[in-house]
Fold each of these.
Amino acid sequence: MNIIDIFSKRGFLEATTHDEALRRHVADDGPVTCYIGFDPTASSLHVGHLVPIMSLAHMQRNGHRPIALVGGGTGLVGDPSGRTEMRQMLTLEQVEENARGIKGQLQKFIDFGDNDGAVLMNNADWLVDLKYIEFLRDIGRHFSVNRMIKSEGYRVRLESEEGLNFVEFNYMLLQAYDFLKLYDRMGCRIQMGGSDQWGNIVAGIDLVRRMRRVESYGITFPLVTTSSGAKMGKTAQGAVWLDAERTSPYDYFQFWINTDDGDVMRFLSLFTFLPIDEVEKTGKLDGADINSAKVVLAFEATRLAHGEGEAVKAYRAAAGMFGLRSVPADLLPSSPIPRGQEVSDDASVPALHMDRSDFEAGIPIFKLYHNVGLVDSGSAARRLISQGGAYVNGRRVDSDSYIVSDEDIEDGEIVLRAGKKKFFKIKING
């Protein structure tokens, strides 16, 4: 499938330039080279950057060459796009430190190890030492001020109370120059970015055409908002960072667990690499099944940002604290998430592996029965207990206030029974 079709199907596309020519370029001239810029305004990227990051990863997985361009040079100026006030001016040392942090995070998603694969670059290499008069004569003469001030990014700032200063006015020229340099150095003919970058991208396309007589292309992504209309990645506590020191893997996992039901299929499409045909099935889920899909989303997103080991730890911690329901094996089978329901020594008895530490604080019996799937709800568990049908290790439970703790572990396991024939075995690690 053409990568443009993949982007479209998974919800990445907001707009493209020269749509048919772009599709032919990707299909006939491949592997093609594309780039996205990341300005180092902080030492960490956040969840709001995931759509462009994932788009580069999809390009690589489909045989193309992505360039992640860290804006060590443009970061010294500040992009006015999408803002009503000027960004804080950073020192060269701050920008360099932030650029180092961003590089480490991008490497979690994109493989920069192959000589013929993805490329990580920094535009400080050609912007910091630019000769101003040369730049104005060679590059600036191709830009119309009349056209520039009509672009959305500049127009909003011109209408704001603070206005647009001359430093920021130069940003469009610098980003366009980046595109020209990447074409000259890498043969790059596709620039991608958020919808607020449309004006900057079109300016770069125009510059490459004027100076090199070559057609290049642009792709923009939509601003992702939640079903409630909130900006993606913003919480009451602030941004959800990709840096584990700012947002722990556990808190990162919890952010995705709390996804609105109406966003689950869309977020699985955008923020995981699970096959789209599996993802589309989740659009028909509700109740316990949609909650299971949220667990898969949280696991996959955490695995990409922090590695499988941290994702498993976060999953187990959440299971111990909140008693996550085990995920049906056929829900999203391509995910390596710990399924919970594994084959026990007795193949007729489902089993869940948990750590001893999960039971140190104790888990209410009614919640545990619900979470492992022996009953459909906490109230059903309470009814079962009141009717005398709940057993732990063969002992009947008399009260729904009973707390299952590490004292209930016998021979490395806890056996739950509902009625006469339904069993569930929890195997204890450690």
Amino acid sequence: MTLPMQGLRVLDLSRVLAGPLVAQMLGDLGAEVIKIERPGEGDDSRSYGPPFLKSSEGRDTRESGFYLSANRNKQSVTVDLCTPEGQDIIRRIAQKSDVVIENFRVGALAKFGLDYATLSALNPRLVYLSITGYGQTGKKAHRPGYDAIFQAAGGHMAVTGAPDNLPGGGPTRSGLSLVDILTSLYASIAILAALNHRDRDPPGKGQYIDIALLDSMVATLSHRGVQYLISGKSSPRRGNVGGGGSPSQAFRCSDGQIVLTVGNDSQWKRFCTAVGQPELAADGRFETATKRIENREALTPTLEAKFATRSSAHWLEALELADIPSGPVNELNEVFADSQVRERGMAVPVPHPLLETLTLIANPIRFSNTPLDRYEPPPTLGQHTESVLRDLLGITEAEMAELKQAKAI
């Protein structure tokens, strides 16, 4: 079966997370992805452990869980960009590629002749993506940064966490590398749009894409950001309480927590019956969604006391029968044991050179005609160096030996 982006070649110069996730997405979609890594060291994320993958013999390898999460469906080629020979290799691969992905600091690759201006002169059809912390323009463009910096600076922490007056309250970062992940999705969309433009409009010219982690975080503020822009008031942090309806939050049951959302007035009436408190539906303070939000502080304690009387399984069953959106607060072992997660195939086993089977998280996209069923394991460092240089660039064994002697590969 042909995959959607089959026939596309991607040169991945990125490392750590946001850039590698973009390249992984394109690889999942069928593109050939050539990942460039530093000889002897590789992607920084290879060292981001523990945990590290254990071999078939039970020994730790250099493959960290962090690295494994973002590098499937790629070929690893080790090239030293600081050498003239290495730079030449990258330029030659770029001439045969459709996309370049990089996340170096602003201006860094121009020193090596690997910037957009240089590579697009060699290959005008090239779509070139640069991911940086602050973007290519502005007074802060030169600054470095990682995910947590932009969760803080971009407003995510301002709207995340418990209220200041509660124990442990205050701005809180996400437990996930949320900015990197979301930036990778914006960047993937941008690349697909640029490729469509290139292939639709003559003369088929590529373009440069400037994606900033800060911009992506600000864009992700979505309705919370627009609410501020129209009101001039910051939305309060509510912890596990939602802002778009009431009740919409986590409740502690006798044996754990559940989360539920009552999104409209008809759901509210069914909810009151399901929890055995139909009188609440007739209470004028709670009869509409707006009133329930306004009177949340009066409603919540009553519901908290009710949910504490029975198990989470009891309440989830009752809420499901009433067609109220709800679910358990799962630990990770419970996530991957969940019957729906298993039926959807979200944990996928793949072979790996160092052990019989490696389990990865599946791509969530489901196509009807071109299913994303290719899951090649994240490569070991330099696993494909010789095969790519030989098959793609026609480098001979003698030339390969010279490149090794020069420490270019």
